[in-house]
Amino acid sequence: MAYHSKRSKVYHTQNNCPVGKAVKKRNRLPGTGGKKMCNFCKMAGKGMAKKGKKRTVRKKMAKKAKRRRR
Ligand SMILES: [Zn+2]
Predict the structure, then answer these.
(1) SS3 category, 13
(2) Cα of 30 to ligand 1 centre, how many Å?
(3) For position 52, what pLDDT does the model report?
(4) Which of 20, 35, 37, 58 is the most exposed place for a label (fewest CB within 10 A)?
(5) pLDDT at residue 18 above 80?
(6) Full-prediction pTM beyond 0.70?
(7) 16: CA distance to ligand 1 center in Å?
(8) How far is the CA of 23 from the centre of ligand 1 (A)?
(9) pLDDT (average), residues 15-44
(10) Do 32 and 4 meet the contact criterion of CB atoms below 8 Å apart?
C-alpha cells in the first residue's frame, strides 16, 4: 500500500522504509498523492522483493538499557 507524508515530495510503498518510518502518523496519508516514489522504496521494491529479504529490528536493546537506568 502506498502512503506519503503531507510534508514530503515523495510517496512510499515499503513499510520498512526508514524515510517512511520517520513520517509521523498524523502526517501520513494513504495513496501516492501524485508524488514521486521514494528512492529507498524504489530500490527495495526491486531488490528486496526478488530476494524476499525482510528485516525487522526489534527494540530489545532499548528496553534493556532502560531497565539498567538508575
Ligand atoms: Zn520510502
Answers:
(1) coil
(2) 13
(3) 47
(4) 58
(5) yes
(6) no
(7) 8
(8) 10
(9) 95
(10) yes
Domain boundaries, the chain: 3-68
Residue the block writes with cell 513499510: 15
Query: What is the whole-number distance in angstroms between the Cα of residue 13 and the centre of ligand 1?
Result: 6
Q: Residues near 37 by Cβ (< 8 Å), separated by ≥ 6?
A: 10, 11, 12, 13, 45
| C-alpha dihedral, 14 to 5 to 24 to 19, nearest 10° | 40
**pLDDT for 57:** 53
51 C-alpha to ligand 1 centroid (Å): 18
Q: How far is the CA of 67 from the centre of ligand 1 (A)?
A: 33
The Cα 70–Cα 53 span in angstroms is: 39
Closest residue by Cα to residue 44 from 32, 53, 35:
53
Write the CA distances from 1 to 30, 62, 67, integer angstroms.
8, 29, 36
pLDDT of residue 45: 84
